[in-house]
Amino acid sequence: METLHNYINGALVESLTNRFSPVYNPASGEKIKQVALSTVKDTEDAIASAQDAFAKWSRLSPLKRSRIMFKFKSLLEENSDRLAKLISQEHGKVYSDALGELTRGLEVVEFACGIPHLQKGEHSANVGTGVDSHSLMQPLGVCAGITPFNFPAMVPMWMFPISLATGNTFVLKPSEKDPSLAIEIAKLLSEAGLPDGVFNVVNGDKESVDVLLTDDRVQAVSFVGSTPIAEYIYSTASAHGKRCQALGGAKNHCIVMPDADLDMASNAIMGAAYGAAGERCMALSVVVAVGDETAEQLISRLQNHISKMKVGPGVISEGENDMGPVISQQHKEKIESYIDSGVQQGASLLVDGRELKVADHETGFFVGPTLFDNVSPEMSIYQEEIFGPVLAIVRVSDYDTALELINKHEYGNGTAIFTRDGETARQFSENVQVGMVGINIPIPVPMAFHSFGGWKRSIFGPLNVHGNDGVRFYTRMKTVTSIWPASVRLKQHESSFVMPTLG
Ligand code: NAD
């Protein structure tokens, strides 16, 4: 059986560990690989390799770094079929969704190709007589990324393309549940001409993460994962003087207004709730229907769509399923226990995904699409992130109550409203306490040249990922104010003890 180890200093390196974690094919439930859970020494070796590579890499011109990103982008495109199948095999999502994830990651690589422009800094001539001022956006040094299972390609690509393009070196600690993509990415970066040591992969768990959070050579940590771990990462990295952005969990609501186009809304909600088996931080898990009539009409459309959904393995020889399995047996059981709790706490279970059996895949980790009506805010299926194909309908009588519900929730990652009324949509986008807002768009994931991040307990740290925030996160600004001798000669050489006011 294949064992995945690390990628350090431009080569595959065997870990020193005696701890391993199984990697499954969630569609069959079989163990297909194992991954090394790296030791402290393995992780320190990766950091040392990134530290050694930093001096030379950071001095390379941004244009040369950007050309390597261009080459990497072409290699990603050439290898997209193979990579998407690998994602699908270890994660379970369907092939076209895996290709979609690769595309969204690739768009950040395209953004990073523009780094000579993005890293220019600012310049002001004559801030004082004969005095100029300009800023440098300098790289930080060794940066670390710790990523979740649900986007094994896209989430690392939210981080390292900008980090590398701005002149940093990088150590990635991918999820131990689907670790193959990280190693494949490392190989493609080397093939694209990235110098050895600039990008390293350490497979592992808390043991290696803790080294990344505390080692003095690591300057910045990007994390994406569940909220309790995000809080731990943010507080530990910050206490060790590191810059940190830690993106956490979500409970994304959409409001459906009585004037919404219900065909459009129900189609959109289906993909957003059940795509990738609900294992997306931007998955829509709560619909707030304004008015009973809206709820009834929406539910009948959703039930009709659900009855036609095809659930099965992510890659099949002909056609495609709509939804694959969830990541593990343990996660399947957790989702099913949430469904149990919804029933016990009094929600109306309209479609029960616990009963699903997929022919020839009886041992796969499948949960069918599940729909609850009459969900109320005290229920755990409303309050907690389930991260599975479970959609809750909450009925309210008016828009203000719907907005208040969203604003009171502890998470604030994504949200959407379905309406034909521009004024309501505008009011919603101004007043909702959520970081990413869709108007008749169910999953409003910002493009690579904008920045991605939620509010409230969905993010810790001031800067979002990718876009301009990503460039700011991976650079440190230095502002240079200069005057040249000729001007100095014209002035009297006198010491001044007051705050300089240059004008
Ligand atoms: P997770 O928090 O279990 O794991 C994320 C990473 O942290 C993994 O690399 C894991 O090895 C590491 N880790 C786990 N426990 C740790 C510990 N005790 N100490 C140190 N490191 C630890 O998350 P997951 O199950 O892989 O991913 C799903 C979660 O990620 C969901 O909550 C989802 O909402 C969230 N997510 C958020 C976003 C976002 O942009 N906000 C995007 C994708 C996923």
Automatic annotation (TrEMBL):
InterPro entries listed in its UniProt record: Ald_DH/histidinol_DH (IPR016161), Ald_DH_C (IPR016163), Ald_DH_CS_CYS (IPR016160), Ald_DH_N (IPR016162), Aldehyde_DH_dom (IPR015590), MeMal-semiAld_DH (IPR010061)
Q: Which GO terms describe its molecular function?
A: methylmalonate-semialdehyde dehydrogenase (acylating, NAD) activity
Domain Aldehyde dehydrogenase spans what residues? Answer: 19-480
Entry's EC annotation: 1.2.1.27
**SUPFAM superfamilies given in the database record:** ALDH-like (SSF53720)
A Gene Ontology biological process noted in the UniProt record is: thymine catabolic process
UniProt keyword annotations, A-Z: NAD, Oxidoreductase
- For this entry, the protein name equals methylmalonate-semialdehyde dehydrogenase (CoA acylating)
